[in-house]
Amino acid sequence: MKLKKLMVLTAACSMVLSITACGSNTANNGGNAAATNAPADNGGANNAGTDSGNAAAGDIVPEDGASLIVWESKEERPFTEEIAKRFTAKYNVPVKIEEVAGPDQVTKLTQDGPSGLAADVINIPHDNLGKAASASLVLPNDIFAEQTKADNTEASIVGSTFEGELYGYPRAAETYALYYNKSLVKEAPKSFDDVLAFSKTFTDKSKNKYGIMWEVGNLYYNYLFIASTGGYLFGDNGTNKDDIGLNNEGAIEGLNTFAKLKEALPIKSGDINADIKRSLFNSGDVAMDITGPWELAGYKEALGDNLGIAPVPTVAGKTAVTFSGIKIYAVNSFSQYPNAAKLYAHFATSKESQLELNKIIGSVPTNKEALEDPQIKDDPYVSAFAEQAKNSQPMPSIPEMGNVWSPVNAALPEIWDKDVDPKVAMDKAVQQIKDLNNGTSAQ
């Protein structure tokens, strides 16, 4: 069964894109998670007198002697360094930043949480939430639940929720769009047929020049060739692990378009990575790039007024449907300072904090008031991502999502590098996913 149109439209129309970051400059205070096998009580020691789910920031105070550790990616650290300074100044709670890539944080929390070595606050893609919540690694967003729901977009709340329980504190949403160099491409292509036509006049492998480049071996970027023509990942709004639509008729139609695009990008999938692509786009040797808002600041600096951003071109005549994700904070259930951690997560996702995130990183907020701010509405680049977000689908957050990446990321290079029939490659990947879902725990 396909992802239901109502879910897609409701979630996608409220989505916006972004990357996020967290950091601080305070002294190392060691691991803050309690060295115990029992998670902290939801709400902590100092919650007396608060109404769960409807508290304001003034209704909760940090524990005596509280200090926090926050995990954050290297790329997104500048934002958190600023927010952590503000938080410490207001609440007198030191914050230490440790650099851990977002997709690695739940795995690290699984290992380090019970032993007391993990961060108090983590920052993860929403599709990792199911794994963390089902293992009781994170606390519900209980104290600020009603305010969080009122302040943020519907899609970001969906992404922050697992099995009906709000866990996350959403701070940004993201998808990808088409970057293009206006000095090379006068008008953004409307279809991938247009991309091929342009590339025939521009691509020259001997000179390392290509009409378009994207990470062709990565499901995240190539989901558009599955979903745009009727494929899907899991049925029942991304919750049914036994209904996989990666190899249905629609998915194969789109993947046939994917395979044809090797004419525009005649190199092996393994020869493309973010650093190579970024360098070639900045130098003018790649005319178009499909990527997310995390590249915006650097590309603006490199290309200036020649930078353009547009929705992804159509696939086989169908509007491109991209993956979208929510970046969320969550509080470690083993934290010694759950009050302080919840307060930090709430503070770092306020309207003001999300606007600061946009200013420093180039993100688009999930906070509804921030979205209406001129800083966001008058930005042509952010607006382009927001337009693409209207036609995006949130990644499933069930634990079995972890079983999808490796099989599909192996199938895509088979199609691209070895000309394996898309149906054959995806049938194999789907069977591997089913075996993982039914025979082993989610990875």
Automatic annotation (TrEMBL):
What GO cellular component entries does it have?
ATP-binding cassette (ABC) transporter complex, substrate-binding subunit-containing
Q: Where is the signal peptide?
A: 1-23
Query: What biological process terms from GO does the record include?
Result: maltodextrin transmembrane transport; maltose transport
Which residue ranges traverse the bilayer?
A: none
What membrane topology does the annotation report for this chain? Lipid-anchor
Give the PANTHER family listed for this entry. Answer: MALTOSE-BINDING PERIPLASMIC PROTEIN (PTHR30061), MALTOSE_MALTODEXTRIN-BINDING PERIPLASMIC PROTEIN (PTHR30061:SF50)
Protein name, please? Maltodextrin-binding protein
